[in-house]
Design a protein that fits this description.
Elements: H1 3-32, E1 46-48, H2 56-60, E2 65-73, E3 79-86, H3 92-99, E4 103-104, E5 111-119
Antiparallel strand pairs: 1-4, 2-3, 2-5
Length: 122
C-alpha cells in the first residue's frame, strides 16, 4: 500500500466514525425512551415491550410529551388495535407502531387497556 492509498483509507475510516457513533447513540436513546404503562387498568403481564422511536420532527423541535392510548389485546396476547386518546399528534404514529409490537400473557378473553407512553428528549 502506498502512502497515498494509506492516507485515503485512513480518511475514509475516520469519516465513518461519527456515523457509527451516531448509530450507537440512537440505539441508546431508543432504550431510554421505553414507554411506561399506566397503573390504571392493565391486569395482563407484559411479555415483550419495545421502546418507541423518537420522531425526528419532535427531536428537531425539542418536543416532549405523553401519549395516552387505548389498546385491545386479543386472547393470545397480541395488540390488535391501538387508538390515541390524548397527547401530541407528532408522537401518535410512533406510539401506535410501538404498542403493536408488544406482547402480553395469554388470557381467556380480549382485554382493553389504557396505557401512557412517555416521550422525553434526553
Amino acid at each position: 500500500m502506498t502512502l497515498e492509498e494509506h492516507k485515503t483509507a485512513n480518511t475514509e475510516f475516520h469519516s465513518l466514525v461519527p456515523i457509527a457513533l451516531t448509530i450507537v447513540l440512537i440505539a441508546l436513546l431508543a432504550a431510554l425512551f421505553a414507554g411506561s404503562i399506566s397503573a390504571q387498568e392493565l391486569s395482563r403481564k407484559t411479555l415483550v415491550r419495545t421502546a418507541p422511536s423518537y420522531p425526528e420532527l419532535a427531536r428537531k423541535l425539542h418536543l416532549e410529551g405523553k401519549v395516552k392510548l387505548e389498546i385491545l389485546i386479543d386472547r393470545a396476547g397480541v395488540v390488535r388495535t391501538a387508538k390515541m386518546l390524548g397527547g401530541n399528534p407528532v408522537f401518535e404514529q410512533s406510539a401506535i407502531e410501538t404498542v403493536k409490537q408488544w406482547r402480553f400473557e395469554p388470557a381467556d378473553k380480549e382485554t382493553k387497556a389504557v396505557i401512557l407512553l412517555d416521550f422525553t428528549d434526553r
